[in-house]
Amino acid sequence: MITAGVDLATQPAKTGLAVVEWSPGAARLTRLQLGVTDHDVVEVAGTAQKVGIDCPLGWPDDFTAFITAHAAGRVELLAAESGDELRRRLAYRQTDRVVRRAGYPPLSVATDRIGLTAMRVALVLEHLAAAGAPVDRSGAGVVAEVYPAASLGRWGLPHRQYKREGNRAARAALVAALRERVPWLDFGGFVALCEESDDALDAVVAALTARAAALGRCAPPPEQDLERARREGWILLPEGPLSTLVEG
Length: 248
What we know:
It comes from Kineococcus aurantiacus. This is Putative nuclease with RNAse H fold. The structure is a single chain. This protein is an alpha/beta fold. The chain folds into two domains: 2-58 and 94-246, Nucleotidyltransferase, domain 5, CATH 3.30.420; 61-92, no CATH class. The protein has ten helices and six strands. The longest helix is centred in the middle third of the chain and has 17 residues, at 114-130.
């Protein structure tokens, strides 16, 4: 099996891509790079069983309905809904609420700058679909929405304050802790790049999460949220320890 991870940014220069090849009891990081284009993502998705993308795959249903109504000049508000309640409902997807309750508050794709990255991923998904890849924003297709920091936390690893240049020491410690936890993963010559770039490191974690998703070891959307997840996207959180990724 091959899984891939993409730490998506608005521009290729800050976008990381990792590819992991899996065999019984072992795995190998065969590709890790920055400067990743949309074409690179589509190309990798043609060979990978699952691609984990660190970016919201859609916008909140309530937000899109609100914007559509506003454009038509007919916004209707519930009288009992306060300003804060309305903003929270418009700002966050159902998956964001679920992940927040699990202790990992995601950014709002409707109100934070990550919305710019989501514009890029929307085009990537269109390219994937045009290439014949099964795209399902709930995670059932080739693409899975992932949240590397939450994955690290679920695996009992440090998951805060490792991003950006000033946190290189913390990132190096995280890489060391990750390598100790996954002795079956051959990092090849990419250890230094993981230590230098949080974009590269998050891509690796995204590829590991994609493996968990491919094995059915992530919590899927509950039945009542499935249709909404297919529009809004759904963050797949891994269940079980990292060791389960190489069992069987």
